[in-house]
Amino acid sequence: MIEALQFEFMRNALYAGLFASLICGIIGTFVVVNRMVFLTGGIAHAAYGGIGAALFFGIPYIYGTMGFSLVAALIMTAVTLRVPHRSDTFIGVLWAVGMALGVILVDLTPGYNVDLMSYLFGSILAVPESDIWWMLALGAVTLALTLYFYRDLIAISYDMEFAQLQGVRVNFLYFLFMAMVAVAIVLIIRVVGLLLVIALLSIPPYIAEKYARSLGVMMIFAVALSAVFNVAGLWMAYRFDLSSGAAIILVAAAGFFLSLFIDTIINVRHKKQRSKI
Amino acid sequence: MDDPVIELSNVSFSYDGVPVVQNASFTVARNEFLAIIGPNGGGKSTLVKLVLGLLKPDAGRIRVLGKPPKKVSHCFGYVPQDVSINRSFPISVLDVVLMGRLRRHKGVRIRQQDYEAAAHFLDLLGVAQYKDRRIDDLSGGQRERVFIARALTTDPDILILDEPTASVDTAGRTELYSLLRELNRTKTIIVVSHDLMVMSSYVTAVACVNQQVYYHGKNEITDEMIDMGYQCPVELIAHGQPHRILKTHEEGP
């Protein structure tokens, strides 16, 4: 690994992975405790429509995807707040429509042939330096907003009605947060791919949730786990010449199943102890 | 009525076209201890959420301290029915109670006065020793106390509890109700509950809710027996006065 770091692309990949860990660990904590993994997946996939739109209309990639995913996020959030028990259906529909629209728009654009695989898995080994700066900035903004609204975000995640009575601007915060998710997804997908974003948003926070006593601790734990998965995955990709995004995901998945396995053992032990008493 | 705290006039509400509350009108006076009773699904929790301003009535008018409920939401201390929400949520007992001070501060750091308020009410409810535990490590009865502490930490004028004793044992109930009686000296209290027999000596008004709301004021319950007839099939026995009867409900207007 150390000798790998003499290559600039490996250093950039490492930075990108670490910043993605920071952003995904913080945002993923809220995503997981609010049971919004599916909603987040919906936004991430629908954003592909933005790539198609950007190509077709000849606008810069970043505006196309950012605009598209922000609109998708706003619609999905509005539906989730209005008709919570029906939101999964609407998210599924937008998810499929967004992707299909993207594929068709790419088809209709003469001369372009976008590789869907690079959208799914990203190209962490070819991250330009400018993207690293973008991620650093996004990480700083995410951190600042989270620190400022920390207690309000806990309250709306834990007990929305009580938060409302306390004068927390529930809808405003919900939309702000979903906008943050949309922006983060778009920027990070470009770097590490859609699948890795979903894996990093869900797996480390899920593991962290079980052992943390507060949301803050859960975030720190999730960021750290995520960073470990990234470094380990990158090392394996380098060592065995594998796709880096997929390698990181599989390392994270190994951690996920390991944590489930450990939980089972602990539960069985507890039961045995209890039956002895 | 003098000094009304809550006034409802002809309030109706329906979920997806199914009427839940119909044409409810009543007034709650300051320092009243109101018990809301009625069958499951009769609309008790919905009525409470209408008063809190968490739901908007389809028709009618609600005034709390003379204003729409949303304008005075800081005057409410609310203990929701379901204290086992979000079971896997990583949050300490202290952080749950600190939610009651949200209006007053932002950011991560806990201010000294907020901490003291939270600690005071945790102590009052007898759960101070659990303050650093994760809330889902507590039993149902302990969680209930934490949620009451949270409601009190907001320093409310009106305390609203939705079935606060569902997971509390009998000794705990008596204790809880005598605490509520203490608090009733300075606060208006509304309790959704089936335990009329435990609190019958403190309650100053009873509302029977089964879509319609039948409001029974002070003199009715002190002199007469609490039996709601078929509208609210609740049978109750009061200490000392085993056979008091409430006036039968008149048919709706």
Write up what this structure looks like.
The complex is a heterodimer of chains A (277) and B (253). Chain A has 277 residues and is mainly α. Chain A contains 13 helices and no strands. Chain A has one domain: ABC transporter involved in vitamin B12 uptake, BtuC, CATH 1.10.3470.10. About 9% of the residues of chain B have low confidence. Chain B has one domain: P-loop containing nucleotide triphosphate hydrolases (Rossmann fold), CATH 3.40.50.300. The relative contact order of chain B is 0.18. Chain B has 7 helices and 9 strands; from the N terminus they run E-E-E-H-E-E-H-H-H-E-H-E-H-E-E-H. Chain B starts with a strand and ends in a 30-residue tail after the last helix. In chain B, a hairpin with a 1-residue loop joins strand 8 and strand 9. By secondary structure, chain B is an alpha/beta fold. The chains are: A mainly alpha (277), B alpha/beta (253). At the A-B interface, helix 8, helix 9 and helix 12 of A face helix 2 of B.
